[in-house]
Amino acid sequence: MSELDESELTRQPIGIFDSGVGGLSVLREIRALLPHESLIYCADSGYAPYGDKSQAQIRKRSLELGEFLIEQGAKAIVIACNTATAAAATAMRERWPDVPIIAMEPAVKPAAAATKAGVVGVLATVGTLASAQFAALLDNFGQGTRVVTRPGIGLVEAVEQGDVDSENLRGRLRRHLTPLLEEGADVIVLGCTHYVFLRESIQLLVGDDVRLIDTGRAVARQLAHKLEERQLLQVAGPRDTRYWTSGNAKVFQQTLARLLREVASPSVLPISRVFA
């Protein structure tokens, strides 16, 4: 990237990766805010969910995905996954200090500011809830607020299959949300990018008096800030989006059409090369 001139650099794509399709919710926000940027999206669906993997496994996987995106010319990388952020953001920034690495974190801070009842619910993966990063968020921003958590077991797998509103899915959501509501939460943090696609179903179950918060829009704004800071913003011209998946390309294409109402022909990530 350093050999390219400034105008060529601005035309380079933004790389985005997630354990699967959840990060498409972040891609959607990036598109809305930065309509002229080209994007590369990597869905590691063949290895999803990340929530039940070890920190070391996720770190290795994330670094390999980062390497792939750098090879594709990414001028910035968005870790569109809370679990991968907790495991790998520091390592990625150390490996590529000249590349903006934009990461996720559960929206504990805005949730604590928004609650009127003094109780915030957090729905996230097992890996995110057990991470040192999440513990630090609670220490920094959870003071004076009672934070109740719930691992959203089975929700990532449902979204990976494009299921966002089936009766089965609603029953699973009800089992996860009821304990948070019984504790008095009036704000619920969607602490996994997959869960954003369940927002409508969740809102119907919890009612209009409970506010749902995620960080996709904030991540898009932070990306825009970092690109502007480094004079890497693409402010005109057509955009291009390329998709890669380590899972089943046909399933990914069907889920993409359901979640983003978009038709694309995703490539299959060459696992033998990327994941040594």
Would you mind describing this structure in some detail?
With 276 residues, the protein is of the alpha/beta class. It has two domains: 6-104 and 217-274, Rossmann fold, CATH 3.40.50; 108-214, Rossmann fold, CATH 3.40.50. Helices cover 46% and strands 15% of the residues. The protein contains 13 helices and ten strands. The chain has helices at 6-11, 24-33, 55-71, 82-95, 108-114, 126-129, 132-141, 155-160, 167-182, 199-206, 216-229, 249-260, 271-274, and strands at residues 14-18, 39-43, 76-79, 101-102, 119-124, 146-151, 187-190, 211-213, 241-245, 267-268. The strands form two sheets. A six-stranded parallel sheet has the order 4-3-1-2-9-10, sandwiched between helices. A four-stranded parallel sheet has the order 6-5-7-8, with helices on both faces. Strand 9, helix 12 and strand 10 (267-268) form a beta-alpha-beta unit. Helix 2 packs across helix 11 (216-229), helix 3 (55-71) crosses helix 4 and helix 9 crosses helix 10. The longest helix has 17 residues, at 55-71. It is globular. The protein starts with 5 loop residues before the first helix and ends with a helix. The model has no long low-confidence stretch (mean pLDDT 92).
